[in-house]
User: What shape does this take?
Amino acid sequence: MNRGNEAGGGKAENRGQTTVSPPPLSPRNRGLSPVSTDRHYLTPLFEPGSVAIVGASEKSGKVGTVLLSNMLAAGYRGELFAVNPKYASVRGVPCSASIGKLPKRVDLAVIATPAQTVPDVIDQCGRAGVRAAVVITAGFSEAGPEGAKLERALLDNARRHGLRLVGPNCLGILRPELGLNATFARGTAIPGSLGLISQSGAVCAAMLDWAAPNKIGFSSVVSLGGSIDIDFGEIIDYLANDAKTEHILLYIEGIRDARRFLSSLRAAARVKPVIVMKTGRHPAGSRAAVSHTGAIVGTDDVFDAAVRRAGVVRVSSIGQLVAAAQALASRVRPHGDRLAVITNGGGPGVIAADRAADLGLSLAQLSPATIEALRQVLPAHWSHGNPIDLIGDAGSERYRAAVAACLADEGVDGVLTILTPQAMTDAEEIARAVAQTARGASKPLIGCWMGESSVSGGRKVLQEASIPVFRTPDPAVEMFVHLAAFYRNQRSLLQTPGPLADHAAPDLQGARTVVESVRAERRRVLSETESKALLAAFHIPIAPTVLAHSANEAMLLAQQIGFAVAMKIDSPDITHKSDVGGVRLNLASADAVLLAYREMLDEIGRKQPQARLNGVTVEPMIARRNARELMVGVIRDSVFGPAIVFGAGGTAVEVHRDRAVALPPLNGFLAAEMIGTTRVARLLGAFRNMPPADMRSLESVLLRVSEMVCELPEIEELDINPLIVDDKGAVAVDARVVVREPPPMRARYAHMAIHPYPTELITSWTLADGSSVGLRPIRPEDAEMEQEFVKNLSDNSRYFRFMNSVRELTPAMLARFTQIDYDREMAFVAVREEGGREIEIGVARYVANPDAQTCEFAIVVAEAWHGKGLGRRMLERLIEVARSRGLKAMVGHVLAVNQSMLALCGKLGFEVSDHPDDGTLKRVTLILDSRRSIA
Assistant: This one.
C-alpha cells in the first residue's frame, strides 16, 4: 500500500478574501518544486499587476505628483491608474473620480490624500476589491489623539475588508525589476539583490541616493512608517522566500511583535545574510529596577542578544549599513573571522591590526606554506607575518602573489588589501591585478586605497569588479568584522535547546507552590528563603538559609548551623543590603551573632527607617580559598520577554558592568558562549596558584535558570549574587526573585521570544507488526539523516513528495527542512535505532500560513514501511498538534494519481476537491474543530 507520499501546500479563506501561503514556506514548494501553484498573500503588494495612485496630481510640490512621476519614470510594467476628482487624466494616465469608478479592480492602491480622508478611501478600496494599499499620508497617531482616532478607523476599515496596509506615514515601496516605484523619493533604484526594510523613510531615501551612483541594486525597498498592519515579520518572510532577494537589510526603530519578528528573522537568516541597524542604543531614561540585573541591563542589550540568537549581524551606524550593503552586493560571504592584511606601508597595517584587536578579531596565522610562498617573491626584509608588508615599492606582481597566497591559505577567511600612494605606485594597475586574482575566489576580498586623486582610478577599478573599497583601514576592518559575525551567529542559530536541562527533573510543583503563595499574599518580592527554595526546586546548589526574628533565635540557629555564619537583613524594601549595613560576615561566636543582630537593626533604623523588616537570615559562611564571585540573573524585557544575564558578581556589580545577555532557552553551547564573552571569564581558568573553576557546574546553573524562566512565566527579575564558583562546584550564596501576574497565554511558552525544542512531543509507538518506532520533532543536527532519507527514497516517492526528480537536498533545502521554527511549523521524524544510530523512516510536517489560522502539510514514508500503518499514525499526530496550537484548518495538495494518499485523507475526515489551478492535483482540507476526533 503506497501510503503517505504526497506534498502539502494550499490556500485558506481569511476575512472573506482568499489568502495564499508563501510558496517557499509551503512544504511542497520550499525550493523544491519547479512550479509554484499558489501565490504569496503579499503578492498584490510586491508584484501588483495594476496600481492606482490615489491623490495623483499635476501640481508641483504635491506628493501625488511625485508618486505618479516616479511610477512613469521607472517604467512600471503593469496597468497604471490615477484617482482624483479634479482630473480626467494626469500626465497621460487615465484618472477616475474615486477608486470605485476605476475601469477595473486594481491590486495595489497608493494613497496620498489628506489624513481625514484616508479611512474613507480605504473603505472604498475594500469595496472595490483592492488587495493591498500603501498609505503615504502622515498625520495619524504620531500627530496626537485626533490622529490616533483616524488611525483606528483606518485600520478597522482595512481589516473589515481583508485589505493589507503598509504605513501610514511612509516613503512607499519599490520593486525595481517590475518598474514599481511607489515612493516620493528623488530618483529611483536599479534592480539588484538587496532587500531593504526600514521604519525610517529618510533612511530609505538616503540609501537610494547613495546606491545608484555606486551601482548597488535592490530587489525591494519597503518603508514601513507607522506599520499599523504589515510589520517587519511579514515583509521579512516574503523577502526570505523571494528569489530576487539574496540579502536583507533592516533599519529598525522599534519592534511590536517579538515572536513574529524573531521567528521571521531566524527563518530568513537560515538561507540569506541579514544585516540589522537599530537606533535607540542609549535611551535617555531607564526603568525602575528592583534587582542588580535590572540595573545593569538595558533594552538594547536584550535586542543585541535577540539578533545574535537569530543568526544575523547588527551594525551601529548608517556608514556601516552602507558598507554592509556594498559588501553583500558583491556577494562577500566570510566563513570565519580570520583576516589577512596585505599592505605596502607598515603604518596602515598596524592601524588595521589595532582596529581588529579593538573589535575582538584576531588576525589570521599564516601557514608555513604561505610564508614560504611569500618568501619566494617578496624582498628579504618583508614583515614575515600578518600584516603582510610588501614594502613601499611594491608593484602589481607582489600584490598579485600575496593575494593569491592568502586566498589559498586554509587558515585565512578574508583578505584586506591596503594601498598607499607612493612615488612608484600605479594604483590602477595594482587594482586590476588584485581584481583579476580575486575573481572567482570563495573568500571575500576588501580593498582600501588610501588617498584621493592619485588612487581614485584604482578605487574605480575595484568598484567595477564588485570589490568593496574604502579610503581608510578602520571601516574596512569593521565591515569584515560585522560580516564575519554572520558566520559566528549562524552557530547560535543552529542551537535548539529544550526547556529542561538533561539532568534531574525539577520540582515544578514545589516551585509553583512557592510562587503562588507569594502572589496569594499580593507580594511581588520573594524573601531570601523563598528565593532559595525556588532555586533548590531547580537543583541549583544553595547556601541553606533560615530566618530569625530575634537576636536569641539568630544565636540558636547559628549554633545549630555551626560557626562561622553570615547574617543578612531580610526586607522586601532593601535591594542592596550592604549599602545600608544589612550584611555581617564571618561571625564566629554566639556573642558576635547577638551583637551583629542588634547593630544591623540599629543601623537600618537610621538609614532606612521606613523599610519593612521580616527579620535576619542566618546561613553558613561560604569561605572558599579559590572562590570567584559571579552573578547570574534574569530580567524581563517589554518586547522580547525573559533574558538571562551572566557576569562578575559581588557588591560592585553595577560598577564593573561586566555582563553577557542571552535569550532562553539555553543549552551547553550557548551557556559556554555566554560565559566566554565576559571579562570575568579570564578569571575562571587556572592562574597563579588557583585551579580552574568547575565550568560544568557553572554552565549547569545557567541551564537551570533557563529552565526556570521557561517553566515559570511569573518571574519578572532574578538575582543570584554572589554565585560562588571554584574548582569544587558552584553555590548560590544570595538570591532575590521578583514575580508578576502573568497575562493570559495562548500556549505554554508564549511568554518567550524563542520557542524551546518541544521535548514534550517526543513519543514512541509499537506498530501492529510489533515494530517499535520513535517519533520526535526534527532538529538541525538531523540534516545528514534527512539527506540520507531522501537519497534512499524511490523515484516514485520522490515524485509524490517533490513533484520533480530531486535526488539530493541542497544545503539551503536542508536548512529549511531541519532548522524549523517550532512556534509556526512542526516536523516529526519517525526513527529506528540501527547499529547504534538513528535511521529516519518517515517525516511529516506542517507549516502555518501567515493568517495564523490554517496550515499546509506534507508526509512521506520510506518504502520498506509502507502498509504498516505508520503514515496514518504520523498524520494523526500532526493533526493533533496542529489542533492543539489553535490552527483551524489543515490543507494539502495531493497528486490525483496518488490514490492511496487520497483514500487515507478521506478516512481521516479530509474533504477532497479539485485544485482550482492545476488539474493534476487534488486539494484536501481538514477542519480542525477541537470537538472532533479523528475517525
